[in-house]
Amino acid sequence: MPVASNGPVDLYYESFGQPGNDTLLLINGLGSQCITYDVALCEKFVDDGFFVIRFDNRDVGLSSKLDDVTPRIADVVGAVRTGSVPDVPYRLSDMALDAVAVLDANGVASAHVVGMSMGGMIVQQMAIDHPERLRSLTSIMSSTGDADVGHSSPDVAELFYTPPGNDRETVIVRRQALDRLCTSPSQYDADRVAQRVGDAFDRCFCPRGVARQLAAVIASGSRTPALQSIRVPALVLHGDADTLIDISGGIRTAESIPGAHFVAIPGMGHDLAPFYWDEIVATITAHARSVASATHSSDER
Fold it and tell me: Is 170 among the domain residues?
C-alpha cells in the first residue's frame, strides 16, 4: 500500500494518470477520506492531462490515527475565545506538511493543489508555509478561519455537531439527515449518500480522529493576515446554496488573497455532486492552464 511519511505520521495515497504530467493534489475535508474524490472525478482530471493524487488526511481512512489524546472541543473553543493557547495534538500547519510529504513521496517538486472545506484551509496553509510547493491553489467551499464569515445555518450546525452514532445504520441515517440540509438542494440523493457513507464506514470509522481534526481547525485561528502575503495563483470556488460554510467564507478567502479569482456556483451546496463535476473540472483546468501559460510567457521574456 503506497504510504508517505511525515515523521511518525503515515499517509495513505492513491494516484491516477501518468506521473510525468502536471500534478494535481486533492485534499479532503473534515472527516472525509480520499474516496470522497470519486474515481470518476479523478479520471476527468486525468483526461485533461493531469497526474492526480488523492490521500487520506491524518486521523481518517488508512492513514495514521493519533489516539494518544482527544481534546474536548469546548475546551479548545474556550481557549481560543480567551486568547489562550489551545492544547491540541496538531494544527492545520501540520496537516499542510502531510500534503508536502505526499508530494515528496511521489517525487513532485510543485503541484496544482485543490482542497475542499477543511481541505481548502489546508491548501491555504500550504500556500502560506510552503509556497514553493504550489503551482496554483484552489480552495473549494472553505473559509479563512475568521469568526464572522462562513457560518452554518442553525439547523445544519445542530446536526453537524451531533455525534454520528456507533453502528453503520445509525451513521448513515444521521448523515442523510445532515446532507439533506447542506448538500446541493436539487442534487440530494439518499441512496447515493447511503452508499458513500457506508463505503467510508466499512473502510474506516474513527470519530475521535474527526474530533481531533476539528480541534486543529479551531486552534489554527484566522489565516486572513497571512493570506494577504500569498503570491500563489489562487482560485476560490463556492456554491451559493452552501448552508454548512456559507458563501461569505469563500468571498473572504478570495478577498484576502491578492489576485484570487472567485467563482460562485449557482445551486451548489456543501458537496461535490456529479452534476457539477464538468463545471468544476473545467474551471480548475482553465486556472491551471492559465498559470502554465503565464509561466511559459515569462520564461520566454
Answer: no
Residue 109 lies in a domain: yes
- Cell 479551531 maps to which residue? 218
This prediction has a pTM of: 0.96
Percent of the chain, pLDDT > 70? 97
- Report how many domains make up the chain: 1
CATH number at residue 255: 3.40.50.1820
Decide the pairing of beta strands 111-116 and 234-239: unpaired
- Encoded amino acid at 154, one letter: P
Q: Secondary structure of the chain in the HEC alphabet?
A: CCEEEECCEEEEEEEECCCCCEEEEEECCCCCCHHHCCHHHHHHHHHCCEEEEEECCCCCCCCCCCCCCCCCHHHHHHHHHHCCCCCCCCCHHHHHHHHHHHHHHCCCCCEEEEEECHHHHHHHHHHHHCHHHEEEEEEECCCCCCCCCCCCCHHHHHHHCCCCCCCHHHHHHHHHHHHHHHCCHHHCCHHHHHHHHHHHHHHCCCHHHHHHHHHHHHHHCCCHHHHCCCCCCEEEEEECCCCCCCCHHHHHHHHHCCCCEEEEECCCCCCCCHHHHHHHHHHHHHHHHHHHHHHHHHHHC
Range of the domain at 22: 3-152+208-300
Cell of 130: 510552503
- Residue 164 covered by a domain: no
pLDDT in tens, 92-105: 999 999 999 999 99
Is residue 296 in some structural domain?
yes
